[in-house]
Predict the 3D structure of the following.
Amino acid sequence: MSIDVGERVALIRKRAGMNQRDFAARLGISNGGISQIESGKAMPGGDFLLRIHQEFGVDLTWLLTGMSNTVPKEAPVVSPEKQELMDAFDDMSPEQRRAILEVGKVLAYPKPSKLVG
């Protein structure tokens, strides 16, 4: 089974650890545009192809045909849990984002407890 252009675009986005909104912003198109491409309802245009090549080093032959003499750059794969957290974070207000970041800092770097003697 081969994948299509939209699926390869989604793969690049996910390997970059980005949601559709941030990926679209980085490529200078609308969030709806990325959604249309990933779902196969639209083909990427020339500007998109140039930007995805420049921003992510994507081999355009591979992107358009699935075949290439070069292997696409590997970006870290984002776990489903991390992707879910990033998607939820994107839908939060600025105040909620700050609160989540503060909680995350506390959980990631707890202060040593005082020894009771």
Notes: The two ends are 66 Å apart (CA to CA).
